[in-house]
Amino acid sequence: MFNVNYENKNNIVIVRLSGELMVESVENLKNEFNQYKENSKYFIFDFKDVTMIDSSGLGYIVYCLKKLREKNGDAKIQHLVDQAKLIFEITRVSSILDIYSNEEQAIQSIENMENSNESHDSNTDEIIS
Protein backbone atom coordinates (compact mmCIF):
# COMPACT_ATOMS: atom_id res chain seq x y z
CA MET A 1 0.00 0.00 0.00
CA PHE A 2 1.26 3.46 -0.92
CA ASN A 3 0.43 6.74 0.82
CA VAL A 4 1.47 10.33 0.26
CA ASN A 5 0.98 13.44 2.37
CA TYR A 6 1.69 17.00 1.35
CA GLU A 7 2.75 19.80 3.68
CA ASN A 8 3.59 23.39 2.81
CA LYS A 9 6.46 25.02 4.74
CA ASN A 10 7.54 28.50 3.65
CA ASN A 11 6.32 27.91 0.08
CA ILE A 12 8.18 24.59 -0.06
CA VAL A 13 6.03 21.51 -0.61
CA ILE A 14 7.15 18.59 1.56
CA VAL A 15 6.01 15.33 -0.08
CA ARG A 16 6.01 12.53 2.49
CA LEU A 17 6.00 9.22 0.66
CA SER A 18 5.19 5.94 2.40
CA GLY A 19 5.17 2.37 1.10
CA GLU A 20 6.09 1.15 -2.37
CA LEU A 21 6.61 3.89 -4.99
CA MET A 22 5.67 1.76 -7.98
CA VAL A 23 4.00 2.07 -11.37
CA GLU A 24 0.49 1.76 -9.85
CA SER A 25 0.77 5.06 -7.96
CA VAL A 26 2.75 7.21 -10.40
CA GLU A 27 -0.10 8.54 -12.56
CA ASN A 28 -2.02 9.88 -9.55
CA LEU A 29 1.19 11.33 -8.12
CA LYS A 30 1.92 13.21 -11.36
CA ASN A 31 -1.59 14.70 -11.34
CA GLU A 32 -1.22 15.80 -7.72
CA PHE A 33 2.27 17.16 -8.40
CA ASN A 34 0.97 19.24 -11.32
CA GLN A 35 -1.64 20.80 -9.03
CA TYR A 36 0.85 21.61 -6.27
CA LYS A 37 3.50 23.02 -8.62
CA GLU A 38 1.08 25.76 -9.66
CA ASN A 39 1.69 27.41 -6.27
CA SER A 40 5.24 26.33 -5.45
CA LYS A 41 8.44 25.79 -7.37
CA TYR A 42 10.31 23.95 -4.59
CA PHE A 43 9.62 20.41 -3.43
CA ILE A 44 11.27 18.12 -0.90
CA PHE A 45 10.54 14.42 -1.29
CA ASP A 46 10.78 12.54 2.00
CA PHE A 47 11.75 8.89 1.42
CA LYS A 48 11.98 7.90 5.10
CA ASP A 49 9.05 5.46 4.83
CA VAL A 50 9.56 4.25 1.24
CA THR A 51 10.14 0.51 1.28
CA MET A 52 10.55 -0.03 -2.48
CA ILE A 53 10.86 2.02 -5.66
CA ASP A 54 10.73 0.82 -9.27
CA SER A 55 11.72 2.53 -12.53
CA SER A 56 8.33 4.26 -12.77
CA GLY A 57 8.77 5.71 -9.30
CA LEU A 58 12.24 6.91 -10.21
CA GLY A 59 10.85 8.34 -13.44
CA TYR A 60 8.26 10.26 -11.41
CA ILE A 61 11.01 11.93 -9.35
CA VAL A 62 12.97 12.86 -12.50
CA TYR A 63 9.75 14.14 -14.13
CA CYS A 64 9.09 16.39 -11.11
CA LEU A 65 12.67 17.65 -11.10
CA LYS A 66 12.52 18.52 -14.79
CA LYS A 67 9.18 20.35 -14.48
CA LEU A 68 10.38 22.33 -11.47
CA ARG A 69 13.66 23.32 -13.08
CA GLU A 70 11.76 24.51 -16.14
CA LYS A 71 10.19 27.14 -13.87
CA ASN A 72 13.50 27.92 -12.07
CA GLY A 73 12.57 25.74 -9.12
CA ASP A 74 14.14 22.59 -7.72
CA ALA A 75 13.52 19.33 -5.91
CA LYS A 76 15.47 17.88 -3.01
CA ILE A 77 15.41 14.42 -1.45
CA GLN A 78 15.57 13.69 2.25
CA HIS A 79 15.92 10.48 4.26
CA LEU A 80 16.92 8.33 1.28
CA VAL A 81 17.58 4.84 2.67
CA ASP A 82 17.89 1.15 1.82
CA GLN A 83 16.58 -0.03 -1.56
CA ALA A 84 15.62 3.46 -2.74
CA LYS A 85 19.11 4.77 -1.97
CA LEU A 86 20.67 1.91 -3.94
CA ILE A 87 18.40 2.57 -6.95
CA PHE A 88 19.25 6.30 -6.91
CA GLU A 89 22.98 5.47 -6.81
CA ILE A 90 22.94 2.72 -9.48
CA THR A 91 20.98 4.87 -11.93
CA ARG A 92 23.04 7.95 -11.04
CA VAL A 93 19.91 9.98 -10.34
CA SER A 94 21.66 10.88 -7.09
CA SER A 95 24.13 12.89 -9.19
CA ILE A 96 21.41 15.31 -10.39
CA LEU A 97 19.54 15.73 -7.11
CA ASP A 98 20.67 17.02 -3.74
CA ILE A 99 20.07 14.45 -1.01
CA TYR A 100 19.83 15.42 2.66
CA SER A 101 19.66 13.43 5.86
CA ASN A 102 17.17 15.82 7.49
CA GLU A 103 14.48 18.30 6.61
CA GLU A 104 16.18 21.34 8.13
CA GLN A 105 19.18 20.94 5.82
CA ALA A 106 16.96 20.47 2.76
CA ILE A 107 14.89 23.56 3.58
CA GLN A 108 18.02 25.60 4.29
CA SER A 109 19.51 24.63 0.92
CA ILE A 110 16.36 25.83 -0.88
CA GLU A 111 16.32 29.07 1.09
CA ASN A 112 19.98 29.64 0.24
CA MET A 113 19.27 28.93 -3.44
CA GLU A 114 16.33 31.32 -3.46
CA ASN A 115 18.39 34.04 -1.78
CA SER A 116 21.28 33.70 -4.20
CA ASN A 117 19.15 32.99 -7.31
CA GLU A 118 21.44 30.06 -7.99
CA SER A 119 21.17 28.59 -11.47
CA HIS A 120 21.53 24.95 -12.44
CA ASP A 121 24.35 23.81 -14.61
CA SER A 122 23.55 22.76 -18.16
CA ASN A 123 24.96 19.27 -17.57
CA THR A 124 22.04 18.55 -15.27
CA ASP A 125 19.58 19.69 -17.93
CA GLU A 126 21.10 17.24 -20.40
CA ILE A 127 20.81 14.33 -17.96
CA ILE A 128 17.10 14.90 -17.31
CA SER A 129 15.98 15.78 -20.85
Folded structure, characterized:
This protein is α/β, with parallel strands linked by helices. The protein has one domain: Transcription Regulator spoIIAA (2-Layer Sandwich), CATH 3.30.750. It is built from 5 helices and 5 strands, in the order E-E-H-E-H-E-H-E-H-H. A 5-stranded mixed beta sheet has the order 1-2-3-4-5, sandwiched between helices. Strand 3, helix 2 and strand 4 form a beta-alpha-beta unit. Helix 1 runs parallel beside helix 2. The longest helix has 16 residues. The mean pLDDT is 91.
Mean pLDDT: 91
The dominant shape is globular
**Protein structure class:** alpha/beta
Head-to-tail CA distance between termini: 31 Å
CATH topology: Transcription Regulator spoIIAA
CATH architecture: 2-Layer Sandwich
Number of strands: 5
User: Roughly what fraction of the amino acids lie in strands?
Assistant: 25-35%
Our count of helices gives 5
Roughly how much helix do the residues carry, as a percent range? 40-55%
Largest sheet composition:
5 strands, mixed
What is the count of structural domains?
1
Q: Which stretches of 5+ consecutive residues score pLDDT under 50?
A: none
Task: Give the strand order, joined by hyphens, for the main sheet.
Answer: 1-2-3-4-5
From the alpha-carbon coordinates, what is the Rg to the nearest angstrom? 13 Å
